[in-house]
Amino acid sequence: MTAHATPLSHVADALRRLPPSCGPVRLVGVDGHAGSGKSTFARRLAEALDGAPVVRLDDIASHDELFGWTERVRRQVIMPLSRGESARYETYDWHARRFGPEVRTLPPAPVVLLEGVGAGRRALRPFLARLLWMELPRGEAWERGRHRDGAEQSDFWDGWEPAERRHFDQDPSRPFAHSLVRQCREGYEVLAGPDETAAQSQIVTHGEGPSAMC
Asked: In 3D, which of 30, 36, 37 has the Cα closest to residue 141?
């Protein structure tokens, strides 16, 4: 079954029409397994949103806290945006294994994307206007990620995979996704997600659902 790509301009327009969820900001989560294509999709969606800011959780997580960054995100990103202020946060250097010296400033734009594994976690969902889930099976996503990062990162992936599995076992995101995003030959197909409110979404493709072949 051939999937039909959803124009990202349509997705962007629908996101702009959502009510603000974090102060004046429509905070949109882009979650999925490592290697599922979140960063590329978020970049393209940000372009369709005329350069919307993107908070990448890879800049906020660390070797010591692969998933223990919730309070840092709330303090440095969520709370300032909720007050209509710019967020400021140090970025983590995965090679030097430390934060800084770069400090990133992110304005309270109409739409801000929060991209990374765990973007739809329980503690953050109350601040999200919409949660998008990259619909790619875990094993396939991990294989893509390992191929992308090369043999020099194999030790990292050996530790990452059980950590991600534990995270989603304890705090799953996909059941709460408003939309599922599947990469196709000509772009992305956006489908209704498991969250029941997704049935009212105007950005989904009326297709065969998650099992359709791109």
From this structure: 36
